[in-house]
TrEMBL record:
InterPro entries: C56_PfpI-like (IPR006286), Class_I_gatase-like (IPR029062), DJ-1/PfpI (IPR002818)
Residue ranges occupied by any DJ-1/PfpI domain in the UniProt entry: 5-176
Keywords of the record: Glutamine amidotransferase
Taxonomic lineage: Bacteria, Bacillati, Actinomycetota, Actinomycetes, Streptosporangiales
Family: Belongs to the peptidase C56 family.
Matches recorded under PROSITE patterns: PEPTIDASE_C56_PFPI
Record-linked SUPFAM superfamilies: Class I glutamine amidotransferase-like (SSF52317)
Protein name: Type 1 glutamine amidotransferase domain-containing protein
């Protein structure tokens, strides 16, 4: 379904919720796509299982070295520190916004919509997230719902959002569908 497609996974150097990186990554690979780990720094990205250190993953390229044109879609994993760090990095925010400008699908889970808020791309969009972001997203113009997955096509691209790791099965399926053009 994703043969010949490359999907960017944008993460900060640390603070990624591991399962929100590894499960969508595996789904992209199983669908025949090529995932690439993009970060703000070279080296390894440190993942966490909630607040406990987990595995570290090799970064393929930095956000300064790639272009939206190199990818067919974007995944933004959660974790509290990960999107909080990304939203403070100008090039990470610009890279994220570029997927919306190019009409390419974006999938964001848990706290990841913080980066979307900073990119200014959630106005008039239907979304979900970890519940603590509800007010932030509404203040940014989004319509927030407490649902397992929300797929919004009301904009220049498909935006897929989910609340938490328990939603990963639905999140991964919706993301693969969107990346595949469905």
């Amino acid at each position: 379904m994703l043969q010949g497609k490359t999907i960017a996974f944008l993460v900060a150097p640390e603070g990624i919720e591991q399962v929100e990186l590894t499960e969508p990554w595996r789904a992209v690979e199983q669908a025949g796509g090529t995932p690439r780990l993009i970060s703000t720094q070279h080296g390894k990205a440190q993942a966490f299982n909630h607040f406990d250190k987990a595995d570290a993953f090799d970064v393929d390229a930095t956000v300064d070295e790639v272009s939206v044109d190199d990818f067919d879609g974007l995944v933004l994993p959660g974790g509290v520190a990960n999107p909080d760090t990304l939203r403070m990095h100008e090039n990470a925010v610009r890279f994220t916004r570029g997927f919306f400008d190019a009409g390419k699908p974006v999938a964001a889970i848990c706290h990841a919509p913080w980066t979307l808020i900073e990119a200014g791309v959630v106005g008039d969009r239907a979304v979900t997230s970890w519940p603590s972001l509800k007010t932030d997203l509404r203040n940014a113009g989004a319509s927030w719902a407490d649902q397992e997955v929300v797929v919004c096509a009301n904009g220049p691209n498909k935006l897929i959002t989910s609340r938490k790791p328990d939603d990963l099965k639905a999140f991964c399926q919706a993301a693969i569908d969107a990346f595949g053009g469905n």
